[in-house]
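hey so i finaly got around to running the thing on MBL fold metallo-hydrolase from Vagococcus zengguangii. pasting the sequence first so u can double check i didnt mess up the copy paste, my clipboard has been acting weird all day
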Amino acid sequence: MELTVLGYWGAYPWNDEGTSSYLLTSGDFSLLIDAGSGTFNQLRKHIDPLTLDAVILSHYHHDHIADLGVLQFYRQLNQQVDQPLLPIYGHTEHEFYYSSLTMPNVSEGHAYAEGDTTEIGPFSITYLRTKHPVPCFAMRITEKETGKSLVYTADSGWMDAFDEFVKDTDLLIADSYFLSGTENHPVHFSVKEVAEMTVRGNIPTVILSHLQQRIDLEELLRQAKAITQEQAQALLAKTGLTLTI
Ligand SMILES: [Zn+2]
Ligand SMILES: [Zn+2]
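ok and heres what it spat out for the 3d tokens, dont ask me to read them lol
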């Protein structure tokens, strides 16, 4: 499977680049993970959004869903004959947002909850409720055919439960909003927590994502590498970054 970063900033887009969104493909199946601000145009550089097979959302903060409505409008206005409804997976703990996943003739909301295993095309997905001001779920996505997996932390402060959830995954995409020194924050990880989790989890590659506009990102990367050293490859998220897993 192949993972492409479409947007990686936390909170708001910046310098022509968008907030959280990732495209995951396996064979000809494509899954959009979150739909952050400014990422619809990036999605179009990789696939025709009419051919997108499914969307999954970690939570309903604006920086993760801002381009979902315009994706629905695009599918509505460019509809092909016999075009299937776009399944959009989300949690049901915010009625207003969950109901907006369904748009007649365009898309259909599908519920997930912690403890579920969701089968979406070639992928099998499990969840971990994160530490965040609103209900939010990290996801572990396994490609059934190969057994390869990735974990997307979504937005979270540190919780011990992450150690078990990320163990031995092939790729970690982690909220790395803070430099070292801001551990145990109630909303986001520090890069120290991310790098240490990567090493303990025996994970070969970590993408530092959900980045903050007001910090030195080279210093963030340096702090991660000081911990991961030779045990893992640490990468700063970047628009268009593609990894094969
Ligand atoms: Zn966020
Ligand atoms: Zn959030």
